[in-house]
Amino acid sequence: AQKITQTQPGMFVQEKEAVTLDCTYDTSDQSYGLFWYKQPSSGEMIFLIYQGSYDEQNATEGRYSLNFQKARKSANLVISASQLGDSAMYFCAMRPPSGGSYIPTFGRGTSLIVHP
Amino acid sequence: DAGVTQSPTHLIKTRGQQVTLRCSPKSGHDTVSWYQQALGQGPQFIFQYYEEEERQRGNFPDRFSGHQFPNYSSELNVNALLLGDSALYLCASSSLLLDWDGELFFGEGSRLTVL
User: Fold this and answer.
1) pLDDT tens, residue by residue, B57-82
2) CB A79 within 8 A of CB A90
3) What share of chain A is helix, strand, coil (3-state, %, to 5)?
4) Contact between A91 and B111 using a beta-carbon 8 Å cutoff
5) pLDDT per residue over A70-106, tens digit each?
6) Do A4 and B48 touch (CB under 8 A)?
7) Can you list the residues of chain B whose pLDDT is less than 50?
8) Cα distance between residue B80 and residue B71, in whole Å
9) Which of B88, B100, B109 comes nearest A102 by C-beta?
10) A13-22: b or e for each residue (b if 16 or more CB lie within 10 Å)?
């Protein structure tokens, strides 16, 4: 069974500063995928970034980077230069190694509020 | 290119009633998954449909059923509604022909309130 833990129910950050959202996971699989999604108040889950368990380099997508520490089983999301539009819920998720059968397990989420 | 569309966006039902939620997948996608997201929680997997059949199912009772049509659109039906069924119901589409890199696309959800 896979489990995702997000221990920060809420985070606050000043505009233009960087923020790290924590995510730890538990799995017995050797191959897996880790994701971060953003959910604004509209409800839609927006894909941000993906990290494969065998990827040696940390994933980056624009202002988003994933700090992947496999031995610690952590996959923290780093948002650089925060913007007001970054205020939303953020979910960490894990997918098992079953190509095409994408059934991710989600954490409980972290609410991020960006202050001007 | 239209993304995933869901209807209705909001609805209110009373206990014991039945509800049908609808989802049209992103163009080119053939697989639809449904999730329930209670307030303050992450999405929980309900079931997945491919080729008009239920392929996988999460830990949800038989009151939750679904259907996929030949055009890949899908319905989620919930019978004998309980107060605890109040949640945001998310539909996600993907393509089984793609490897993981075919990311999962979500709709904006249907917010169900059961009174």
Assistant:
1) 999 999 999 999 999 999 999 999 99
2) no
3) 5, 50, 45
4) no
5) 999 999 999 999 999 999 999 999 987 655 556 788 9
6) no
7) none
8) 28
9) B100
10) beeeeebebb
